[in-house]
Amino acid sequence: MIPINPPVGEIPPTETIVARVRANAAAHPDRLALVCGQDRLTWGDFDVQINRVANLLLGQGLQKGQNVAILSPNSIPYATLFMGILRAGGCVTPLSSMASPDALHKMLTDCGAKAIFVAQTYRDLLDGFLGEMAINRFALDFEAAGYDSFEGALAGADSSDPMVPIDMKDPFNLIYSSGTTGTPKGIVHDHWMRAAQMDRVTPNGYDADARTLISTPLYSNTTIVAFVPTLFGGSTVHLMPKFDARTYLETVQREQITHTMLVPVQYKRIMDLPDFDSFDLSSMRMKFSTSAPLRADVKRDVLARFPGKLIEYYGLTEGGGVTVLIADEHPDKLHTVGKAAPGNEIRLIDGQGNEVPTGQVGEICGRGPTMMAGYFGRDDLTADTIWRDAAGHVFFRSGDMGYLDDDGFLTLSDRKKDMIISGGLNIYANDLELVLLDDPDVTDAAVIGVPSEAWGETPLGLVVRREGTARGAEEILARANAKLGKSQRLSAVELRDALPRSTIGKILKKDLRAPYWAAEKENT
Question: Which domains does the chain have, with CATH numbers?
Answer without folding.
Answer: 17-242 (3.40.50.12780), 315-415 (2.30.38.10), 419-522 (3.30.300.30)
